[in-house]
Inverse folding.
């Protein structure tokens, strides 16, 4: 067993009709949520494009998810910056 594998759980996923076995530190609920989300994103791609190959569907879903992650990170960065600004204002008024 490789280093760090002792904490990994084996999970079976069904992604777009394909059986996939993964190892993860996450709990079953999280893994199931990831599986459902990915299948949902693939279905969205199927409905909105003419892509038919499994690879194309997976790549387009990955692009969409990556776009969501980037937007979310930017939003979190802005919120963090705004929180710091507000904390500084509060400190100035209290101090």
């Amino acid at each position: 067993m490789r280093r760090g594998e002792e904490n990994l759980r084996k999970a079976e996923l069904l992604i777009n009709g394909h059986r996939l076995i993964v190892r993860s530190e996450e709990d079953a609920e999280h893994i199931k949520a990831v599986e459902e989300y990915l299948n949902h994103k693939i279905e969205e791609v199927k409905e909105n494009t003419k892509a038919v190959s499994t690879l194309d569907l997976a790549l387009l879903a990955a692009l969409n998810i990556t776009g969501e992650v980037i937007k979310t990170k930017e939003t979190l960065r802005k919120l963090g910056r705004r929180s710091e600004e507000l904390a500084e204002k509060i400190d100035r008024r209290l101090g």
Q: What stands out?
A: Residues 21 and 93 are 56 Å apart (CA to CA).
